[in-house]
Design a protein that fits this description.
By secondary structure, this protein is of the alpha/beta class. It has 14 helices and 20 strands. It binds adenosine-5'-diphosphate. This is Bifunctional protein PutA.
């Protein structure tokens, strides 16, 4: 692994044709845990290159959609094997470029591998043979599935391998050509993933990589009439911009938008819960990956009878958290992604502290963290989720107390917020957990455990409302929205 710690990486747009090096578009990449440590550089795509990539993808689509699904799926399976073989390199790069703990990096690559194998298997089931439908005598009716056209896959920095790979391989295996737009902050690891995908046999005009500025590249991908669909993970605001741009196009077929966006994830703990277990699950849900997961816990509701005990244990657990270099196996919490993210979180912290809301905090050792974008995990007291203005995408937890007779109001307040991604409930009273789990409107409910870490094919992941459109990633229906159906009726 040491060999990947110092290597310099360079990336540029990967189009179906060769493009020239252009230093005027080159951006340096440095590590979030130490801004003095260079990782390499990325040449960002221009508007013209994004447009060129759309032309190429448009031409590639008919041939690719007629390529037998077995061949398409086999490329994903080879890609999975290659990513497994390159796990040490990819996880190290996730740490160096994205500030991820090495252990988070392992989970991340494993998830990408699982996506490839799961979607390959699912595609063989869905696309290989037409489904025969019952009909009148003298007639045969078949239902066939195929790709829709050109998909843009616009992905976030917080899962730069798993979500990035999952989106694009789903689109490709369903028979679409794909324009993959990684997040600005994590283009180097995206570039390595695509190089491995080419090694696995993916044609270079079927999947193209467009690293670059979100609005510049994104506006081409959401305004060109030949884009059939966009699969997006990121903020709710950006999803709305893309949605409006797609809708404003003239002479374009009605598009598909598959979006997985923000969350305001809550957990309700009643008085029968086990405080030690609650704290272990809360710490994991709120602070793992420095709280930079869509699924992370933001608002913890504690029933009055148990609240003081849980907060006391939580204080102790937070003091134990080790914050520092994500490549060090003893580290619990690494940096946040960049200075902009840190500044946003610090502004929130300042406001909460000024209001006297600080309940608990972890210790930052400046000798360890002084040159990186670190934020100490903290917990604040709030009255309820109603007071939360925006998702704080970092290691900040908010705690509200409730009386047993206020339970329905708490559930109503969480539902009224309109986000619906993950939710947790802790209680040893089964009728309580069943009632709460059934009333809450979210995509993923977790009972008596942490609320992060969905397993592909086992816990399909995705929300509703402001949190996304569905279908759920890693679920049996995900590929269906990338596909179109054709019914063939033959007079026999
Ligand atoms: P975050 O706030 O988590 O960085 P964003 O929604 O800004 O989330 O980013 C998610 C992805 O959307 C990134 O790949 C980013 O480059 C891209 N993006 C940002 N702005 C736009 C836009 N106007 N159109 C399309 N994509 C965009």
């Amino acid at each position: 692994m040491a060999e990947f710690m110092d290597r310099e990486y360079h990336a540029k747009p990967l189009l179906g044709i060769d493009i020239a090096d252009d230093d005027s578009q080159r951006q340096p990449v440095a590590s979030p845990y130490d801004r003095r440590q260079p990782v390499g550089s990325v040449q960002w795509a221009t508007r013209e290159q994004a447009q060129q990539a759309v032309d190429i993808a448009w031409k590639a689509f008919p041939r690719w959609s007629e390529t037998p699904v077995d061949e398409r799926a086999a490329i994903l399976e080879r890609h999975a094997d290659l990513m497994e073989n390159h796990l040490p390199e990819l996880m190290t790069l996730c740490s160096r470029e994205g500030g991820k703990l090495l252990t988070d990096g392992v989970d991340e690559i494993r998830e990408a591998v699982d996506f490839c194998r799961y979607y390959a298997a699912r595609a063989r089931e869905l696309f290989a043979e037409p489904t025969l439908l019952p009909g009148p005598t003298g007639e045969s009716n078949e239902l066939m599935m195929s790709g829709k056209g050109v998909f843009a896959a616009i992905s976030p920095w917080n899962f730069p391998v798993a979500i990035f790979t999952g989106q694009l391989v789903a689109a490709a295996v369903a028979g679409n050509s794909v324009l993959a737009k990684p997040a600005e902050q994590t283009s180097l690891v995206a570039n390595r993933v695509i190089e491995l995908l080419f090694e696995a046999g993916m044609p270079r005009d079927v999947v193209q990589l467009l690293p670059g500025d979100g609005p510049t590249v994104g506006s081409v991908l959401s305004s060109d009439p030949r884009i059939t669909g966009v699969v997006f993970t990121g903020s709710t605001d950006t999803a709305q911009i893309i949605n409006r741009a797609l809708a404003a196009r003239e002479n374009a077929a009605l598009p598909t938008l598959i979006a997985e966006t923000g969350g305001m994830n809550a957990m309700i703990v009643d008085s029968t819960a086990l405080p030690e277990q609650v704290v272990a699950d809360v710490v994991h849900s709120a602070f793992q990956s420095a709280g930079q997961r869509c699924s992370a816990l933001r608002v913890l509701y504690l029933q009055e009878d148990i609240a003081d005990r849980v907060i006391e244990i939580l204080r102790g657990a937070m003091e134990e958290l080790r914050i520092g270099d994500p490549r060090d196996l003893g580290t619990d919490v690494g940096p946040v992604i960049d200075e902009e993210a840190r500044e946003g979180l610090l502004a929130h912290i300042e406001k909460m502290k000024a209001e006297g809301r600080l309940l608990a905090e972890a210790k930052l050792d400046l000798a360890q963290t002084g040159n990186g974008t670190f934020v100490a995990p903290m917990a604040f007291a709030i009255d309820g989720i109603e007071s939360m203005q925006a998702e704080q995408f970092g290691p900040l937890l908010h705690i509200a107390r409730y009386h047993a007779d206020q339970l329905e109001d708490v559930i109503d307040a969480i539902n009224a917020k309109g986000y619906g991604l993950t939710f947790g409930v802790h209680s040893r009273n089964e009728s309580f957990t069943q009632h709460v789990a059934s009333r809450i409107r979210v995509g993923n409910v977790y009972v008596n455990r942490d609320i992060i870490g969905a397993v592909v094919g086992v816990q399909p992941f995705g929300g509703q409302g402001f949190s996304g459109t569905g279908p759920k990633a890693g679920g049996p229906h995900y590929l269906l929205r990338f596909a179109t159906e054709k019914t063939r009726t033959i007079n026999t």
